[in-house]
Structures are given as structure tokens and as C-alpha cells.
Amino acid sequence: MFRHALRLPFKLLGIPVRLDSSFLLVLPLFAYLIGSQIPAYVALFERNGIHIDTTSLQGGLTPYLLGLVGAIGLFLSVLVHELGHAVVARLYGVEVREITLWFLGGVAQFTDMPRQRGAEAVVAIVGPITSALLALLAGLSWGLVGGHGAALFLLSYLAVTNAFLALFNLLPALPLDGGRVLRSLLALAMPHLRATRLAGAVSGAIAILLGIYGFFTLQLFLVVIAFFVYNAGRAETQAAIVSSAFAGVRVRDLMTPDPVTVEPDLPLSQFAQLMFFRRHTGYPVVDAGHRLLGFARLQDARDAGPDVPVGSIMTPAETVAPDEEAEHALRRIAEGDLGRLMVVDADGRLLGVVSKTDLIRRIRAHAEQQASPGPPWQRDRA
């Protein structure tokens, strides 16, 4: 999702932090919007009993410098929000890959969600709680700055925005925290897949209402968020379907055994002939003992001489053990470059190949099984 993100040269609690290119573009926009709307913010604060002297907030670049500090404070608040998720996820034994900031906020990426019953709700609810605590901390700091207009404005802004973040994230729409809490609670009484489908349906309805409201109130940002929530909710449902299809399935159950292989000393002129007999784009390279040496692509053979051996264009193969969970293999195939994994035993001998085609075949078979008639309690068991 975030292929063009800048990794920061430090880690927070051992977690890498990245800035997506959209974040770098939107930060100055947020700074401008905050700086240009200072009078509106001050009026909002005064309606809630917070009186700010605006004399020092106007003129020159001061409003936009305040806007920049406010925008940075906002994204730092989002970062702390995501750290809250990460810390609790670690308590459940989940590895946190990284935290990425982008124009719609932040994302803490886990290797997997905790599988314990109700754990997803606990991990999710920590985010809004963290934002609420940040809002409270900013509010309690008002007395420390006295009547200093700039500091009081920034603290008030952070108190209001963090309170809004806490409330907004409690909306029961995936992938927001409230949607994850809803799914986790539903999963206490029904299969996870059905709980995801119900939560996804609620997410779609909320996204449509949010989009309509944003359209008629001319709040473009709300429309963008609604579009994101709608599509992310559908993606969550599709991911749950895939996860259900691979529940309890191992790589050996899906792999194509005894694949066509080539030896490293095979001339490329003969290797290239394979394209006329098979539709594969590449082949595993093995030695005489059938131990995997690498992978050779047909497209790489075009740029080399016809008498050059296959071993000269061979690249490292992406391997997997036969007992690996199929869902993990799917994730690795999606992240890899070859579109397939070589299945090898403990001695490095090639047993088979698992590819996108094998995985898609499994998903289709599972979908047909779910669509087949029968009592509801005989379906959605994964």
C-alpha cells in the first residue's frame, strides 16, 4: 500500500516509522489550512470558555508558522495513537512491522491480528483511549502557559483535534477502531467471517451517509474519508474471505508437485524453446540430486547468448516449507517478485511449486462451497 514511503532514521519502541509521500504533500496543506482558519478556531475555543488573545497570532508568517506547528502536533498525536495499538498488540505476541503516516492519518502494520477471542477489540479500543488521554493532557496544560496566546492556541487545537480523533475512530466502520471493536464483539457470538461481513455492511452504510453529508456540506475531506472507509471495509471483507479459505490449510495441500525443472548447464537456446510448449514464465533450476539452485526466467534468456547456460541467468528462488500455513505463503507471494514459491524439504530438495494460480483455485473452490445450499450452521465455520 505504501510503496513510496520514507523510512525515518530512528525507531520508536523498536518500531520503524515511515512517512508516505502523501504525508509530505499534505503537511504544508494542513499548515496553510490551520493558519488561515485561526479566527474560526479561536471563536470555537471561546464558545467553550477558552479565551485567547489573538493580537500575537496575526500578521506576517505567524499564522502559518502556528499552522505548521499545529499540523506537526496533529500527526505526532496520530503517531502516539498508533503506538498505543502497537504496544497492546505486542502484549498479545503480535509482531509490529512498522507505523506509517499518510495524508489520512496513520497505520500500524501488524504481521497478523491477535487470534484470541476479543483481542482485536482490546487492541483497537486503545487508540481512541490514547487520543482521549492526549486531549485531556493538552487541556490540563492550559494553566501552565497562562495567557500566552500562541501556546494556548496550540494546546487548545491539540485538545480539540485529539478529542475529535477519539470520537471519530469510535465510529463502527472498518477499518476504524470502532469497526474493529464491533467485529471482535460480533465474533464472540458467531464465526469470524460472518462477523466481518456484518461489520463490513455497517461500514458501507456509514461510509455512504458520511459521503452524502460531506457532499451537501461541501466538506471534500469528509467525502475522501467516506470513499476510503467504503473501499477499506470491502477490502477487509475480502481479506476475511481469503483467510477463511486458507484456515488450517498448509502449503503441501495446495502446491503443484513435481514441477518441470531445468538444469544449470542447459543452453539458453534450448531453454527458450520451453515457451512454445508451456505457458510458464520461468522454471526452477535444480542439480542432479534435485536440490533447488535458483530460478530462471524466460525473459532473461532473451538478452543473453544462445550458448550461455541457464545457470548464468539464474536468480535466487523464494522458498517455503511444505508445512507452512497457506495464508502466510499467500502474503509472501504478494510481497515477492516471482509470483510463486518453491516448496523445498529440509535438505533443499524441490518438492513442488505454489503459485498465485494454486491460491486462486483454492479461493474459488471455497467460495463455491460457501455459496452451496445448506443450513447456515454448516457454512461460515472458519
Enumerate the strands of the largest sheet in spatial order, edge to edge or round the barrel.
Answer: 1-2-3-4
Which sheet architecture does the biggest sheet show? 4 strands, mixed
Structural class from helices and strands? Answer: alpha+beta
Overall number of strands: 10
Rg, nearest Å = 27 Å
Task: Note the gap between the termini.
Answer: 27 Å
| Element string (H = helix, E = strand) | EEHHHEEHHHHHHHEHEEHEHEEH
Share of helix among residues?
Answer: 40-55%
Brief synopsis:
This protein is α+β, with helices and mostly antiparallel strands. The chain has helices at 21-36, 38-47, 62-91, 119-140, 142-145, 149-169, 177-186, 192-216, 220-245, 251-254, 268-271, 298-301, 326-335, 356-371, and strands at residues 5-12, 15-20, 96-102, 105-110, 256-257, 282-286, 292-297, 319-320, 340-344, 350-355. Helix 9 crosses helix 14.
Please describe what this structure looks like.
- The protein has about 375 residues and is α+β, with helices and mostly antiparallel strands.
- It has 3 domains: about 5-170, no CATH class; about 180-245; about 250-365, CBS-domain (Roll).
- It is built from 14 helices and 10 strands.
- The strands form 3 sheets. Strands 1-2-3-4 form a 4-stranded mixed β-sheet.
- Strand 3 (about 95-100) and strand 4 (about 105-110) form a beta hairpin.
- Helix 8 runs antiparallel to helix 9 and helix 9 (about 220-245) packs across helix 14.
